[in-house]
């Protein structure tokens, strides 16, 4: 008797063959979603399991917006507004002369060629170009390498330091498309023509020889 039980317990149970007609999920792996508001017979009709009234009965599961403070005037409305957003404002990436000198001395930038904003970005001298690059004068006393550089803006002391070392600087206007074609020329089958400045203050800046603007050099 014991032998027959042991034989029955250890014998393999024949598994049904798997084919396209018998494919199914494991038992309990998939469950039907609860359909609410479909009549009283389901047990989830009328109030859909939320009870009568109250915050948790409202749509959105009773979750107010993050700045809601129970009905009192929230902090975002108690504090006044300050300042404004200038839609024409420019965000220039600042570059100091001491950092530029270090990159040239370490061989990361070739000073024998014209240094563009793409060269500065590719060498990681700057880490991003938002609306352009502005050259500043920190380290002007130690800057001794004659370079030819082209940026968006430059301070007067930075211009004096570049030219005092025997170099040349040009400030040039770039719009968003112009910057994209400068940084990623491989994305264009044909490079677009660089746009001219449209705003009066930008035309005035790039037409002033004091700022070494490219428009002033073209007119000269």
Summarize the structure.
The chain contains eight helices and five strands; from the N terminus they run ααβααβββαβααα.
Description:
The chain has 220 residues and is an alpha/beta fold. 26% of the residues lie in helices and 8% in strands. The strands form 2 sheets. The protein has a 3-stranded parallel β-sheet. A two-stranded parallel ribbon has the order 3-5. The longest helix has 9 residues, at 2-10. The radius of gyration is 35 Å and the shape is elongated.
Helix and strand topology:
Blueprint: H1 2-10, H2 75-78, E1 93-96, H3 97-105, H4 117-122, E2 133-136, E3 148-151, E4 153-154, H5 156-164, E5 168-171, H6 176-183, H7 200-206, H8 214-219
**Termini separation:** 115 Å
Beta-strand content bin: 5-15%
Overall average pLDDT? 91
Strand order of the largest sheet: 1-2-4
Structural class estimated from helices and strands: alpha/beta
Most strands sheet: 3 strands, parallel
Oligomeric state of shown chains: single chain
Number of helical stretches of at least 4 residues: 8
Q: Identify low-pLDDT runs.
A: none
Over all CA atoms, what is the radius of gyration? 35 Å
Order of helices and strands: HHEHHEEEHEHHH
* Relative helix content: 25-40%
Shape: elongated
């Amino acid at each position: 008797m014991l032998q027959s039980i042991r034989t029955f317990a250890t014998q393999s149970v024949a598994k049904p063959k798997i084919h396209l007609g018998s494919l199914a999920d494991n038992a309990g792996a998939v469950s039907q979603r609860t359909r609410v508001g479909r009549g009283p017979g389901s047990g989830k009709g009328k109030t859909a399991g939320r009870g009568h009234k109250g915050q948790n009965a409202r749509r959105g599961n009773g979750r107010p917006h993050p700045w809601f403070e129970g009905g009192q005037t929230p902090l975002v409305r108690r504090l006044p507004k300050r300042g404004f957003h200038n839609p024409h404002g420019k965000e220039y990436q600042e570059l100091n002369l001491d950092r530029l000198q270090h990159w040239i001395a370490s061989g990361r930038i070739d000073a024998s060629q014209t240094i563009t904003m793409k060269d500065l970005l590719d060498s990681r001298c700057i880490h991003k170009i938002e609306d352009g690059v502005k050259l500043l004068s920190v380290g002007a006393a130690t800057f001794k390498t004659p370079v030819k550089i082209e940026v968006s803006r430059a301070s007067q002391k930075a211009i004096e330091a570049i030219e005092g070392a025997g170099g040349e600087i040009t400030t040039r206007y770039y719009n968003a498309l112009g910057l994209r074609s400068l940084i990623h020329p491989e994305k264009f089958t044909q490079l677009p023509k660089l746009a001219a400045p449209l705003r009066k203050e930008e035309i005035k800046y790039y037409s002033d020889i004091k700022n070494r603007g490219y428009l002033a050099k073209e007119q000269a």
